[in-house]
Design brief:
The protein is α+β, with helices and mostly antiparallel strands. Helix content is 17%, strand content 36%. Strands 33-34-36-35-37-38-39-40 form an eight-stranded mixed β-sheet, sandwiched between helices. The chain has a seven-stranded antiparallel β-sheet with strand order 16-17-18-19-20-21-22, with no helix packed on it.
């Protein structure tokens, strides 16, 4: 079929489909997954659950009501799924029979439920419910009120809470994208499917997360977050599935995603604050063994792009014989599925699924089949089944028709030597309408984190700039994940040091290597840590003709007291040196008088990660100095605007970036 191709536009964001969370059925024959699309008229998104058979011969949508249908969990007999839906009474648990198509709502919790999973015998469904810390009870929705009455009551209560005073005595009382703490803690609940009766299993001074049940159904292990910033993980606890005393299995507050071995004797999990590694311990607790100590790369998905939409923590997964543990690895611009031997401590893992792409979720049947959700440079999202021979069957090419229409630039990878002779990875996108012999302006893009990684994935913002005639340069400087622990931690106490030199050295190398780049016409942009780095670089050099700093940091002193993840994040990143002299020394605001580059500051008004006061300070000082600076405030948006903001705002931000840079582009 002949398709007339065209260049990518900012408005294409509303046409993408984002798949996520593929999960293989216990019998290995089917896969459920989520798919999110934009509702243009409503300026929001809707997510539904889909089903495919592992042969790729059949697929269908399973949910059609509500706008948020998430977290499908297979029944042990593979005949039904439980899932979350907002179609009635908020986010409740629903049950769908795949044989009859019958659906029924299972819960009426006042504040909803999350993280559904089954007992091995199929008699119980478990999940997490918010429990008020002071009332210590689970609130239920009244049975004697209509849906409209319940909706109105909930709206009134939420409005009253938002308008009222809020009093806290803990350090961490807010979370970006969520808001302010309402005094609730997520706790485990068991629901008997035959009767609908439920029982609260935990009621402690922690948030329970990432629960998993033992194969014999006797215990539930989970991660307990005890009042600290949740970004690094928590302790691993367990509780009898019938209720009872809690036990601490892993006491350090840096664990994530525990999972039982098939025989129930072991628990595998990820731990360490920043550079996540794979551990295994006895299911009753005790000393944990590090399995990935000789493997230099990070476990989990630490990639940076403006796609995916829904991303979940990815658990390690066991082979059925209990000999192998499969995990997702972040390595040198790609995500791969690797497997470690349970017994061979420190042995190099085997790469099971690889390629120049980014796998952001996988599910393993324990035997010979995996299903993956992934993105590649020319594909925002796909679902595939991979057999034991490594052969792939595409289950859902979500964006195939759209991508045939678009002219997409492919990244070229290169490496260069930087400070201390460290090898640094870079990528370059040629302009989409590249013509040999012509010279092109450059946009240097800097990722957030800093402990994330540019990767082989579709990045819409970059493709829009490529469509506008820019070569887009993106680099993984020291501090990035995916290049080893020493590389990731190299920025600790040195923000704006050798990392900024990596970026400038990468720009110099790209101009030397690619003769079509015009080194006299370079713009720069970055978000979060990237926004910090843009601000910082503008105090060091005047070589850029325009700059965009989004969700930035300008003053580490005020950041220490206002960010939702501070002070622990800044204490980690500054190697414990958080005195005002040190923080001010690394703050771009301290050198704001040196900025001469035209700058656009973009910031979300509900950003709790890097609060908007960071941009406000930089903006006002530049204004008073008479510099060329503009301020774009994004309403009703969090720090996650890049990936999950309202579609119209996502279009507006990219268009504003293109406009600001293009107007200032020097002509040749």
């Amino acid at each position: 079929m002949n398709v007339k191709q065209r260049l990518v536009t900012p408005e294409d964001i509303v046409k993408f489909q984002w798949p996520s969370n593929p999960t293989i059925s216990p019998d290995g024959k089917k896969v459920v997954y989520e798919k999110t699309v934009v509702r243009t008229k409503e300026n929001d998104y809707e997510t539904h659950v889909h089903l495919a058979d592992s042969s790729g011969q059949e697929k269908r949508i399973l949910t059609t009501s509500g706008t948020s249908n998430l977290g499908p969990a297979w029944s042990p007999d593979s005949k039904a799924i439980a899932y979350l839906s907002n179609r009635e009474n908020g986010m409740q648990a629903w049950l769908l029979s795949l044989d009859s198509g019958e659906e029924k709502r299972l819960t009426r919790f006042r504040h909803g439920i999350s993280s559904l999973f089954w007992s091995p015998d199929g008699d119980y469904l478990y999940g997490l419910v918010p429990v008020h810390a002071e009332k210590a009870n689970v609130e239920m929705l009244a049975h004697d009120k209509t849906q409209q009455e319940l909706d109105e009551l909930i709206a009134q209560e939420n409005k009253a809470w938002a308008a009222g005073p809020k009093r806290y005595d803990q350090s961490y009382y807010k979370l970006d994208g969520v808001g302010f703490d309402k005094g609730q803690r997520r706790q485990l609940v068991a629901i008997h499917l035959a009767t609908g009766d439920w029982k609260l299993l935990t009621n402690g001074p922690f948030d329970a997360s990432e629960p998993v049940i033992s194969p014999d159904g006797s215990y539930i292990a989970f991660v307990a977050l005890r009042g600290e910033a949740p970004i690094y993980g928590g302790q691993i606890l367990r509780v009898p599935a019938a209720g009872g005393e809690l036990e601490t299995l892993y006491p350090e507050a840096d664990a994530k995603v525990p999972v039982y071995s098939p025989d129930g004797k072991w628990i595998a999990f990820l731990a360490n604050k920043e550079h996540k590694q794979l551990y295994v311990m006895d299911a009753t607790g005790g000393q944990a063994r590090l399995l990935s100590g000789e493997y230099p790369f990070s476990m989990g998905d630490l990639t940076f792009t403006d796609m995916y939409f829904l991303r979940y923590p990815v658990r390690p997964q066991w082979s059925r014989d209990g000999e192998w543990i499969y995990a997702l690895s972040t390595r040198e611009g790609k995500n791969e599925v690797v497997r470690f031997s349970k017994e061979q401590e420190g042995a190099s893992p085997e790469v099971v699924v690889k390629g120049n792409r980014t796998i952001f979720h996988f599910s393993f049947d324990g035997n010979d089949g995996l299903t993956i959700a992934y993105s590649s440079p020319n594909q925002p999202g796909s679902i595939a089944f991979v057999n034991s021979k490594g052969e792939e069957v595409r289950l859902d090419d979500c964006n195939e028709q759209l991508m045939r229409e678009l002219i997409v630039a492919e990244p070229e990878e290169f490496t260069f030597s930087s400070v201390d002779d460290w090898q640094i990875q870079g990528f370059l996108l040629k302009p989409a309408s590249f013509t040999p012999g012509e010279k092109y302006p450059i946009l240097l893009d800097i990722h957030g984190g800093p402990h994330s990684m540019f990767c082989y994935a579709y990045f819409h913002q970059m493709q829009v700039f490529a469509a506008k005639g820019y070569a887009v340069l993106f680099i993984n400087p020291r501090g990035s994940s995916g290049f080893g622990r020493e590389f990731s931690e190299a920025v600790h106490g040195d923000y704006g040091g050798k990392d900024h030199q990596d970026l400038l050295n990468g720009l110099t190398e790209a101009v030397r290597r690619f003769d079509f780049l015009d080194g006299s016409r370079v713009a720069i942009n970055g978000i979060s840590y990237g926004g910090f780095m843009v601000n910082w670089l503008l105090t060091k050099t005047d070589q850029f003709f325009a700059a965009i700093s989004e969700g930035c940091i300008s003053n580490w002193i005020s950041m220490y007291g206002t960010s939702d993840i501070s002070p622990v994040f800044i204490e980690q990143e500054f190697a414990g040196k958080t005195d005002m002299e040190t923080l001010w020394k690394h703050s771009p605001l301290a050198y704001v008088d040196k900025v001469r580059t035209p700058l656009l500051l973009m910031h979300s008004e509900q950003d709790l990660r890097c609060p908007i006061e960071q941009a406000e300070q930089f903006y006002i000082y530049l204004k008073r100095l008479g510099r060329e600076v503009e301020f774009l405030r994004m309403p009703d948006a969090s720090h996650g605007l890049l990936q999950i903001g309202k579609p119209a705002l996502r279009i507006a931000r990219v268009q504003a970036m293109v406009d600001f840079v293009s107007v200032r582009l020097p002509q040749v």
